[in-house]
C-alpha cells in the first residue's frame, strides 16, 4: 500500500522526546488528527515497550481503522528492560502477532524490519515477513536504516513496500544512495526525524532544558561542543521561514517533499495543532530559490557533529558520512 505524502510519527506519545502525555491524552490527540485528515500513522514494537501500539490501537477503535495507512515495526524490542535487535524469523512472526494484538487490528499495512540484525541474513528476515504478507497479517514489508546494498538484497527476496531512513536538511545520508535507489525501484522513502529531532522546528531552546530521559541528551549534535555551533544557524533559519511565509517546521518539510514524489516525511509530535500544521505543508508552495538557500544553510557542511553516538551508529546499516562520535 502506498502511503500518503505526509505521516505522523507516534513515538513521542510514549517516549524519547520531552515528557509523553498520559495515554488517554495521546488517544484523544490521535483521534482528533485522524478526524481532520491525518491518514498515515507510524508506530513500533519498540516504542514504549509496546505501549505505543496500544495507544494507537485505542485511537483506531470505533471505526477509524479504515481511515489510515497503519505502519509498525519489529525486529527491535525491549526485552527484560533492554533494547534487543533480533531479526530471526521466529522472533518476527511472534512480534507481528503481538503487534496485531496490541493494535487490536487484523492486519498492518506496512511492517518494517526496524533494524537489520547483522547476525541474520536480511533475506531470511524479509522472507519471514513476506510469508506474513501472504497470509494477510501485513500488507507489505518495510526496511529501516538500511543501505542500498541491503535494500537490493532484500528486494530480490520480496517486494519492499517502503524504506524508512532518517532524512532531513541536517541528516543528508539518503543522498549517498538510498534516495536514488528507492526512486529507481519505485519504493517510498519514509523520512523519519524530518525536522531534525525538533531542531528545525525551533523547538529546542537549550539541550540543558530537556528532560533527563530525553534521547537528544545522548546525541552529539545536542551536546558540547556541537550544540553551540548548530544553534548559531537558527536565527537565519527563522528568517528563511519568515520569507517563505510558513513555520520553520513547515519549511523543513516542504524542502523534504521537494526531494522527490516518493519522499514521505513522518514528523512526530504530541500536539494536535502541530500535527495539523505539519500536514498542511503538503499544500504549501515555496520558491525553488528559497529552498536552495535552505539547503545551503542547513547541510552536512554547516551542521556540527555526527547524528549518532558510537553505540547507536553501530546499530544501523545506512550509508554514513561518519556518523559516530
Automatic annotation (TrEMBL):
A molecular function GO annotation: oxidoreductase activity
Keyword Oxidoreductase: yes
PANTHER family: AFLATOXIN B1 ALDEHYDE REDUCTASE, ALDO-KETO REDUCTASE YAKC [NADP(+)]
GO cellular component, one term: cytoplasm
UniProt xrefs under InterPro entries: Aldo-Keto_reductase, NAD(P)_OxRdtase_dom_sf, NADP_OxRdtase_dom
Signal peptide annotation: none
Organism annotation: Microbacterium oleivorans
Protein name per Swiss-Prot or TrEMBL: Aldo/keto reductase
Residues of the NADP-dependent oxidoreductase domain: 5-286
UniProt entry keywords in alphabetical sequence: Oxidoreductase
